[in-house]
Amino acid sequence: MRRLVNHVLHSGLLMRHALRINRMWKSPHELQNRMLLRLLRRAEQTEWGRRHAFRDIRSARDFAQAMPVRDYEHFQPLVERMMYGEPNVLWPGQVRWFSKSSGTTSARSKFIPVPGGNLRENHKRGTWDSLTVLYHQLPAARLFAHRSMIMGGALSSFSPHPDTTTGDVSAIMLHHLPRWARFFFLPDVETALLPDWEEKLERMARAGANDPSVVMIGGVPTWTVVLFRRILELSGKAHMLEVWPDFQVYIHGGVSFLPYRAQFREFFPSEQVSYQEIYNASEGYFAVQDLLDQDGMLLLLDNGIYYEFLPMEEWQAAHPKAIGLEDVKLGKHYAMVISTSGGLWRYTPGDTVMFTSLHPYRIKVTGRTKQFINAFGEEVMVDNTDKALAEACQATGAVVVDYTVAPRYLSRGRKGGHQWLVEFEREPGDIAEFSKLLDRNLQRCNSDYEAKRYHSLALERLELVPVPKGTFHDWLRTKGKLGGQHKVPRLANHRQYVDDILHFLAERV
Hints:
By secondary structure, the chain is an alpha/beta fold.
């Protein structure tokens, strides 16, 4: 039966999705213009649509003039009204589902509306798009002939208005997974939606250790590594292919895969295992890697989202000016601006991207608008540090679990620099040499950093502080931030996270 389902999906439904993806290649601007007008027409009778005269908007230029670019702080009061059951605020009708996007250390959460139509035409369609390109790239894929493992979040009722449910977007999608589809996934939905993350990981590990049929898993690399280690501990196997001999694909997102690639080669020591990056945020399913041997993800242009982009020089502007898809250039950092079928209008989710291709439009995530270091004019992005660290690990055989970086400010008798807290799974033989190599790699990745490091005139060589195993996991636990959507901030232009971790370690001594 599973083989039959796999064949039907491969030859039928996925082929129809492939036709949609081909349209994204051939007419991207027309697709986006139609998408904008479609979103406006659907929302013109909402409170937001009437306030901004959606009925009179006929072009992208009209749209940009009708309202400024905004962040979550502006939308929060309106979203809260929606969570209390008020209809027709940002989107038609009453919205009952809200994806929760949490900060790393702050108790403050963002709640993103997920109307039924948005769930179908964006998140679910994006999932099918990712499978479409997988089957196109891997004709022998057997994802529906065996089982796949999913790492979901949790759901909770909004106590002031019980008809409203919140949770991270993976949990919302799991809840709406058709009953027929649940047969193909591990663990059961009840386990996948457990609110206690550590109990869930343990149950998932035990289920995975006892089911050799798993061919695919999706999840954030940081937590997937923890799961794999526990599965190997329970099974007594040397690597994951001894546990899952037919394994084919790991689908990842949330953080860069570069620092983890070496670990996954050890988990799956075979060239037959493929890796696919997706860009599925709380606000939307934006992009999917369509060429598995190349960097960059295909921007999904027909999934209920209209895209604009802020050049780097506009990020801190009082009135930032966004550009359209037709004006983007290769190799430049942009902040995303989105308008969606979830009722977000010219909204900045905080992610930064760079275009790797314009025909078709492919992007890679380079960081966050709030995760960078520019204390000394060096303009270092997460993309730079991920690459520099991955190259240093490859050269030395080191394996990194996680890291965070902050500026080290000028002090009496000492120039400024960067301080790295790094948790190693396998330390390099010589930490001092690793630090020098990492610094050289970062200079090669970022010319502004290289200029500031020239003869150490403005910046000293980076300071690397190895931290004990389990540090970041335990630190996140103290913040109540365990779970697939919670990640250690890679970069900060302040010392709040680094100082807090160092203080946490000092208290443990």
